[in-house]
Design goal:
- By secondary structure, this protein is an all-alpha fold.
- 75% of the residues lie in helices and 0% in strands.
- The chain is built from two helices and no strands.
- The protein has helices spanning 2-21, 23-44.
- It starts with a helix and ends in a 12-residue tail after the last helix.
Length: 56
């Protein structure tokens, strides 16, 4: 299991490094994730204009 974790961490590190160096890929990823978040909010019936209620 330790070897798998090491491979996973290496892959994550390589992906982060790639995104840090490539602005076009980073912008594309952020726009994709943003679109997915908007899509999931609309399918759940929630929107960003709803006020949040905090319980203390």
């Amino acid at each position: 299991m330790s070897k798998r974790r090491g491979i996973l961490m290496t892959a994550i590190g390589a992906g982060v490094t790639y995104l840090m160096r490539n602005k076009q890929a980073r912008d594309k990823l952020f726009s994709t994730v943003s679109g997915m978040m908007k899509s999931s909010n609309s399918s759940n019936g929630t929107s960003k204009t709803r006020p949040r209620v905090e319980v203390k």
